[in-house]
Design brief:
single chain; ABC transporter involved in vitamin B12 uptake, BtuC; two-stranded antiparallel sheet; mainly alpha; 2 strands
Length: 533
C-alpha cells in the first residue's frame, strides 16, 4: 500500500470513528444526560427510543449512503460522466412528482407500493433524458444540462401540486427535505433488501459494467451490446436511488461525492470502487446525520439530513467543475457561436403579441360564476377590474423583467440556457429572504427586497468569481449556477420543512402568486419594469 492509499485509509477510518463517536454521544444523551435524568424518564422508554429510533436511524443512514453511492457509481460508469448522479439527472425530482401525483389521484398505490411509484417517476425522467440526448451520443454536458432542465420542470410541477393542495401535500414537501428520523426498522429493512439484491446484480454484471467504461465501438468489439446493457444498468441505478427516496426522502449529492472521493483516495479500478464508494457513502451520510443531531435544539433539528448533504454537494460540484478535463468546452475568451435565427422575426413577434393580447383579454373578461362561464361587461367588468387589472399588470411587468434578465444573462454567459433559475439567482434570493424573515418575521416590503437583492447578487458574484478564476466555458458557468442553486434550495427547503411561521412565509414566496396584488403594487411593478428595462 503506497503512502497515498495509507493516508486515505487513515482519513476515512478517522471519519468513520467520528461518526461512531457521534452515535455513541447520542446514546449517552438518551441514557445519562442530566436533562433526561432530571425528567425522570424510565428505562423502558429509553430502551424503546434506542431500539425503535436511535439504532434504526444509524442503520438507515449507513444503508442509504451505501445505496446512493452505488447508484451514483453505476450511473457515472455507464454514462462515462463524472457529474452523473440521481440529483443531477433529475431522478429524485421525477420520484417526487410521481409521489405527489399518487398522493392526489391514487393514494392506494402508496400503501405498500411507494418504491414502485418512486421508481416509475424516476425511470420516466431518465427515459425522457435519454431520448433527448441519445442522438448526441449521451455527451456528458448535454446529459447533465438536460437532466437539470427536466429536474427543474418536475420540481416546479411538484411545488405547484403542493401549493395547490395546501396541508394535504405539505408533508410531501417535508419528505423532500430528506429527514432520517425513524420510528421503526421498516426503512432500514427495505434498504438492506434492495442493497443486497443490487450488490448481487452488480457482481453478476461486472463484465458488462467494466466494458461500458470504454467507448461503444470497443464494447461491441468485445461482444457487448452497449445500448442494452447501459439501459439495464441505468434501471438498476434508478431502482437503488428511488428506493432511498421512497423510504426516507431526497438525499442529494451522496451519489456524486462518494465515487469522486474514492477516486481522490487513489482507487482506480472499477471493481475496487464497487467496494470503496459504498463504504465512503455510508460514512458521509452517517457522519452528516450525526452532525445534524449534534446541532439540533430542543425544538428539533434545524435542517433535515437531506438538505444538509446539499451543503456538501454544492461546493463539491463547484470544485469538480474547476478540475474536470473530460469536456471540450469553449472558454469565455473564445468567440461566440452564432445561433440560428428566423428569417421573419416580425412575423414571430406579431404572433407572440397577438397571443399576449388574447390572453390578457380572456383574463380580464372571462370568468366562472355559479351557473357557468360568463363574459363580464358593463358594471360587472368595472367591479372586476379593481381585482383583475392589478394582477394582470404585475404579471406582465414581472414577465418583462424576467425576460430582460434572461436575455442579459444569456448574452453575458454565451449560453442560451442561462436564466435566473438555472444560474442560482432565484435560490440565492431565497436565502436572502430567509435571512431577513429570520431576523424580523414582520419585515416590510423594502427590507424583503433588500434581502432578496443581496442574496441574488451574492449568488451571481460567486458564479462570476469562479468563471473569472479559470475563464471556464458557458456550460461550466451554467453548472456552477446549478451548484449554487442546490445550496440555496437546501436552505429554503430546510426552513420550509421546519413548519413554523417563517416556513409559510417562504412557501408563499415560492408560489409566486399575484393573488393579493393591489393597485399600488401594480404601479410599482410597472414603474420598475419601465426603469430597469
Amino acid at each position: 500500500m503506497n503512502d497515498r492509499h495509507g493516508r486515505a485509509v487513515l482519513a476515512w477510518t478517522g471519519l468513520a470513528l467520528a461518526a461512531a463517536g457521534l452515535f455513541g454521544w447520542k446514546i449517552w444523551v438518551q441514557w445519562s444526560a442530566p436533562g433526561i435524568v432530571a425528567a425522570g424518564v424510565d428505562d423502558g422508554l429509553r430502551w424503546i427510543m434506542l431500539f425503535n429510533s436511535t439504532l434504526p436511524r444509524a442503520a438507515t443512514a449507513v444503508l442509504a449512503g451505501a445505496t446512493l453511492a452505488l447508484s451514483g457509481l453505476i450511473l457515472q460508469r455507464v454514462l462515462r460522466n463524472d457529474l452523473a448522479e440521481p440529483s443531477t439527472l433529475g431522478i429524485f425530482s421525477g420520484a417526487n412528482l410521481a409521489m405527489a401525483l399518487a398522493a392526489l389521484y391514487a393514494p392506494s398505490l402508496l400503501h405498500g407500493g411507494r418504491e414502485a411509484v418512486a421508481f416509475g417517476g424516476g425511470i420516466t425522467v431518465v427515459a425522457l433524458l435519454l431520448s433527448l440526448t441519445w442522438r448526441r451520443g449521451l455527451e456528458p454536458v448535454s446529459v447533465v444540462l438536460a437532466g437539470m432542465m427536466v429536474s427543474l420542470a418536475a420540481a416546479s410541477l411538484s411545488a405547484t401540486l403542493v401549493l395547490a393542495n395546501g396541508e394535504y401535500l405539505y408533508t410531501l414537501f417535508i419528505w423532500g427535505g430528506g429527514s432520517l428520523v425513524q420510528n421503526g426498522w421498516g426503512p432500514a429493512t427495505a434498504l438492506l433488501k434492495q442493497l443486497t439484491v443490487a450488490v448481487l446484480a452488480v457482481f453478476a454484471l461486472l463484465r458488462p459494467l467494466s466494458i461500458l467504461g470504454l467507448d461503444d465501438r470497443g464494447a461491441r468489439s468485445l461482444g457487448i451490446a452497449p445500448a442494452l446493457w447501459r439501459c439495464v444498468a441505468i434501471a438498476l441505478a434508478v431502482a437503488l436511488a428511488t428506493t432511498v427516496a421512497a423510504e426516507i426522502g431526497v438525499i442529494g449529492f451522496v451519489g456524486l461525492a462518494a465515487p469522486a472521493l474514492a477516486e481522490l483516495s487513489g482507487v482506480r479500478r472499477f471493481s475496487s470502487k464497487l467496494i470503496a464508494a459504498p463504504l465512503i457513502g455510508a460514512i458521509i451520510l452517517w457522519l452528516t446525520d450525526g452532525l445534524v443531531q449534534l446541532t439540533a435544539s430542543a425544538e428539533g433539528e434545524w435542517v433535515p439530513t437531506g438538505a444538509a448533504t446539499a451543503f456538501l454537494g454544492g461546493p463539491l460540484l463547484l470544485w469538480m467543475l474547476l478540475r474536470l478535463r473530460i469536456y471540450e468546452w469553449r472558454s469565455l475568451t473564445d468567440p461566440a457561436v452564432a445561433s440560428r435565427r428566423t428569417t421573419r422575426p416580425e412575423l414571430v413577434l406579431s404572433f407572440i403579441a397577438a397571443g399576449a393580447l388574447i390572453a390578457a383579454a380572456i383574463s380580464m373578461l372571462v370568468g366562472r360564476a355559479p351557473d357557468g362561464w360568463h363574459i363580464a361587461t358593463g358594471p360587472l367588468l368595472a367591479d372586476l377590474a379593481a381585482w383583475r387589472l392589478p394582477r394582470l399588470v404585475i404579471a406582465a411587468s414581472a414577465g418583462a423583467m424576467l425576460g430582460a434578465a434572461g436575455a442579459i444573462m444569456q448574452r453575458m454567459t454565451g449560453n442560451p440556457l442561462a436564466s435566473p433559475e438555472m444560474l442560482g439567482v432565484s435560490s440565492g434570493a431565497g436565502i436572502g429572504l430567509a435571512a431577513v424573515l429570520s431576523l424580523s418575521p414582520m419585515a416590510g416590503l423594502a427590507a424583503q427586497f433588500i434581502g432578496l437583492a443581496c442574496g441574488a447578487l451574492g449568488a451571481i458574484a460567486i458564479i462570476m468569481t469562479v468563471a473569472a478564476f479559470r475563464l471556464i466555458g458557458p456550460e461550466r458557468v451554467l453548472l456552477a449556477g446549478i451548484a449554487i442553486g442546490a445550496m440555496g434550495n437546501a436552505v429554503v427547503t430546510a426552513v420550509v420543512a421546519s413548519g413554523n411561521q417563517l416556513s409559510f412565509a417562504l412557501l408563499r414566496w415560492l408560489s409566486g402568486t399575484t393573488h393579493d396584488a393591489s393597485p399600488h403594487d401594480a404601479w410599482m411593478a410597472a414603474l420598475a419594469a419601465l426603469v430597469l428595462i
